[in-house]
């Protein structure tokens, strides 16, 4: 497939659907070393920025925390971490779903259901 393609564009915006599209592209012989390295570097910058922001908030509250970066399906990895550290509580924010999701609050579910 890649033999006929001179340039491949994969649009990613951070949501899992766009990351699935990226995985599909890479799994279907579209992997180019420079492309892969650029994506990995970008993901590292995003991860570092998120962790630095979270650590800044913790420092402001003088909280003693440990960080861990895990890669994979979020619900699976969160559940694995919960089990590994024997957590008593999981606190998560929620994404803004808009008026339709707010109108049907009974459709919400907690990540703790997967554990």
UniProtKB/TrEMBL annotation:
The protein's name in its UniProt record: UspA domain-containing protein
InterPro entries: Rossmann-like_a/b/a_fold, UspA
Species of provenance: Gossypium darwinii (Darwin's cotton)
Pfam families: Usp (PF00582)
Domain UspA: 8-103
Sequence intervals crossing the membrane: none
SUPFAM superfamilies according to UniProt: Adenine nucleotide alpha hydrolases-like
């Amino acid at each position: 497939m890649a033999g006929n393609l001179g340039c491949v564009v994969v649009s990613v915006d951070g949501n899992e659907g766009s990351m699935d599209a990226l995985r599909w592209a890479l799994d279907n012989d579209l992997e180019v070393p420079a492309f892969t390295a650029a994506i990995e570097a970008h993901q590292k910058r995003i991860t570092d920025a998120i962790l630095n922001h979270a650590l800044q908030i913790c420092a402001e509250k003088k909280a003693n925390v440990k960080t861990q970066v895990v890669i994979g399906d979020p619900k699976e990895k969160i559940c694995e971490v919960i089990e590994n550290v024997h957590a008593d509580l999981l606190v998560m924010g929620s994404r803004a779903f808009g008026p339709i999701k707010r109108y049907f609050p009974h459709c919400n579910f907690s990540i703790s259901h997967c554990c």
